[in-house]
């Protein structure tokens, strides 16, 4: 594909965006909901996401991530996962004209037809199974349609990218466990998507060789452009294409731009007296950054990479393996620093504008925004 600049009229990109089925593979706003917020309310000053902004951004289908960290051990994690699903279902019950639970591709099309947000559930972290296949079945029956084998923590299924990168695991502990293989085989049987974001390289390769269905990588980017352990190396990208899977690009600045951390550290150093005072008061780094961003908005904006940097990752994948294997997995409400132009889910149309300016055709854009994922999802039900 040639990427030639073209003149784009505002109405053209918005029209193309509205005509496409837009699917986001990863959003963490359930975390905010567990803290008492309601996405039916206007949460503009508090989150990246709410129902009004999903509509404004032309988002047709959203994977809501069910997440907890390793602090939720046996007896806690599975129960907490179900509580998050309860909270999502409660929102759906209160807003039946705006959002519906979707468990099959044909239901997604029905949601689009009815102009409702298609809510799909993803489980981010195999530790929530608590080493029980029956728990996987129960989560599937409640609507979960993908499982991320690990979060940052390794578990009884597999080793994580963070742990493998830190070198904190002996070789015998790296990769997919026997239980992890059982889980993948069960997911293949159920028609549940295997998500390989967050997993270590050894786990990745063993999972690719175990699954009989196309995989997803719900929220990761290109290692060659941003060498972070959460990103994918070229041979992994090629393996996903050969598998028939899809990669959802993550909007997290640190996974997009290798210069981001240095700029952020300079920003913090410039305001080190205020940082020290906030640290003394018990504020976390994320809270400190949020406070400083509100106080110094122009400076904070320049710390973040431009949208073009994110689209460079997309171009790279397309040039490496083709346009059929890339999608979007924003990680909104699970990250603190997004590209400058992407401040909330309402800004998804700007991605379409950038794709058009880079010479992508309407067919390409339809694939990237949702078609590639829908193809993979449909493939789960095929023998």
Automatic annotation (TrEMBL):
Protein name: Dipeptidase
Organism: Adhaeribacter aerolatus
GO biological process: proteolysis
Origin: domain of life: Bacteria
SUPFAM superfamilies assigned to the protein according to its UniProt record, in alphabetical order: Metallo-dependent hydrolases
GO molecular function term, any single one: metallodipeptidase activity
């Amino acid at each position: 594909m040639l990427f030639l600049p073209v003149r784009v009229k505002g109405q053209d990109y918005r029209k193309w965006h509205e005509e496409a089925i837009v699917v986001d593979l990863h959003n963490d706003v359930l975390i905010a909901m567990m803290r008492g917020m309601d996405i039916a309310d206007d949460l503009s000053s508090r989150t990246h996401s709410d129902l009004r902004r999903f509509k404004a951004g032309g988002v047709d289908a959203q994977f809501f991530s069910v997440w907890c960290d390793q602090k939720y051990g046996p007896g806690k994690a599975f129960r907490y996962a179900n509580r998050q699903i309860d909270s999502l279902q409660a929102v759906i019950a209160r807003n039946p004209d705006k959002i519906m639970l979707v468990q099959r591709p044909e239901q997604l099309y029905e949601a689009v037809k009815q102009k409702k947000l298609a809510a799909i559930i993803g489980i981010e972290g195999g530790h929530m199974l608590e080493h029980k296949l029956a728990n996987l079945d129960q989560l599937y029956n409640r609507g979960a349609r993908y499982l991320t084998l690990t979060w940052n923590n390794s578990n009884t299924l597999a080793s994580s990218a963070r742990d493998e990168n830190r070198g904190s695991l002996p070789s015998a502990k790296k990769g997919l466990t026997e239980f992890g293989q059982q889980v993948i085989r069960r997911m293949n049987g159920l028609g549940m998507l295997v998500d390989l974001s967050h997993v270590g390289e050894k786990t990745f390769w063993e999972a690719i060789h175990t699954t009989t269905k196309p995989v997803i990588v719900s929220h990761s980017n290109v290692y060659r452009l941003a060498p972070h352990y959460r990103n994918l190396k070229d041979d992994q990208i090629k393996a996903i294409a050969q598998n028939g899977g899809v990669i959802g690009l993550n909007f997290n600045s640190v996974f997009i731009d290798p210069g981001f951390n240095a700029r952020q550290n300079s920003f913090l150093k410039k305001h080190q007296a205020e940082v020290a005072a906030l640290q003394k008061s018990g504020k976390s780094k994320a809270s400190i950054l949020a406070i400083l961003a509100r106080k110094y908005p122009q400076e904070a904006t320049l710390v973040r990479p431009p949208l073009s940097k994110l689209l460079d990752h997309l171009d790279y994948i397309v040039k490496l393996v083709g346009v059929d294997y890339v999608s979007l997995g924003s990680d909104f409400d699970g990250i603190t620093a997004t590209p400058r132009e992407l401040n909330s889910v309402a800004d998804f149309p700007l991605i379409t504008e950038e794709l058009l300016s880079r010479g992508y055709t309407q067919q390409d854009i339809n694939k990237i925004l949702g078609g590639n994922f829908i193809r993979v999802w449909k493939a789960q039900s095929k023998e």
